[in-house]
Amino acid sequence: MRSKQFIIGILMMMLVMIPVLGGCGRQEVPETEAEAAVSTAESIAEDSSLIITALKGGAADSFVLLSENHVVVIDTGLESKADKLVEFLKSQGVTRVDELIITHYDKDHVGGADHIISEFEVGKVYTTYHSKESDDITEYIAALESKGLSESTVTELISFEADNVTYTIYPPQKTSYADSESNNSSLVVRVTAGENSMLFAGDAESERISELLETTGLESTVLKIPHHGRIDANTEKLIDYINPDYAIITSSGSEPEDQEVLDMLESRGVKTYLTRDGNVTIVMDSAGIAVTQ
């Protein structure tokens, strides 16, 4: 697991070396302010702050959520980038992943799952229903079997709490979709720490987004834009419904987000971060929220 002192170190570095609330650039901090930052970091750690990292890994989803005594991984990116996910987790002192959540079974979400299962102790595995077959899925299932694990297919809303952080998993409302079945079967996850929250929308397309628009309680501070920022008939409605202050888009240079989506976010004053520009770190705690890249 990870020590309290380790979290204090990360938070202190963020508080001292980078401006809070998504600012850019660096600034020198006087010693007295640095001491104050240490005190603030200690206070935050006591309050079980949540650190969310959106990893750079092509047009693929890979998120690591760390609190003092708990680790959650939401999606595992591409097989070809799995080593980077494993290395990142180990660099954070992770030895156990308490929950592994696979939103759906496309290769850019499940590709590294077998590596996580093989390299770490894993608690619970939450998934949507199987809508396809692939080598990535076969390897993932083999890894589960080798560790004596089984997946839990989410068919009803699930909510759990750890370190004062609430995790809610919203399942698809159908067992089959007419179009883009894998994407539309995406689990959607909302994570709340203090007064801030983040919604992970998987690769939801029109049918699944329509379901979300009928679901109460989804408004969030941060929105992971679904399907790597590709425009959808319901994208604008979703942004307005979630009403975020920040947006994260998992895209790449070769598979960029759509400009129309960026324009929608900009026109609403939403600060947007692209993982193709590097890892994005989000800290939520009693003091508020900080987003840095």
Describe the structure.
The chain has 293 residues and is an alpha/beta fold. It has ten helices and 15 strands. The protein has helices spanning 4-17, 31-46, 82-91, 107-110, 113-119, 135-146, 181-184, 206-213, 235-242, 259-267; strands at residues 50-54, 62-67, 70-76, 96-102, 121-127, 152-153, 158-162, 165-170, 188-193, 196-200, 222-224, 246-249, 271-274, 280-285, 288-292. The strands form two sheets. An eight-stranded mixed beta sheet has the order 6-5-4-3-2-1-14-15. Helix 1 crosses helix 2, helix 3 packs parallel to helix 5 and helix 5 (113-119) runs parallel beside helix 6 (135-146). The longest helix is centred in the N-terminal third of the chain and has 16 residues, at 31-46. It is globular, with a radius of gyration of 18 Å.
